[in-house]
Structure prediction request, 139 residues.
Amino acid sequence: MLTARELLNTRFDQVFRGYNPSQVDAFIARLVGEYETLLQENKNLKKSTHETKAQVEAARESAAELEAVDAQMVQAQAQLADVEQRIKAAQLELKLISDEKAQLQQKLRVLLKELSDLVAQCEEPDVAAESLKEAVSGN
Prediction:
């Protein structure tokens, strides 16, 4: 690639009826200035392009990480829904067990009352024997 210094150091042979050397030198000086400006802009654009590519790559990586996080979130939400369903089932089972416990406690109270009555009747010999016969026979 042609450098600005090469442009600046370029010399032309003088010929009879050639171009005005001062005009040629002025044009070359202008050309060198613009060439250096273009080279610097090109360098800056390459640097900017490199930085932009790095940013794009970082954005792609971030997007991939976000997709992974989203997938994990969907999985966690599914697990949460499953756990919530299990909790509801356990609560229902607990309610059924609690109701059954209350029923059994009520039956136990009734049986204890009946037993207490039988014990009281046992203190009366004739009545206790008759009650015991009735209880055993199921009448």
Remarks:
- Helices lie at 4-9, 21-122, 125-137.
- The chain has one domain: 4-137.
- The first helix runs from residue 4 to 9.
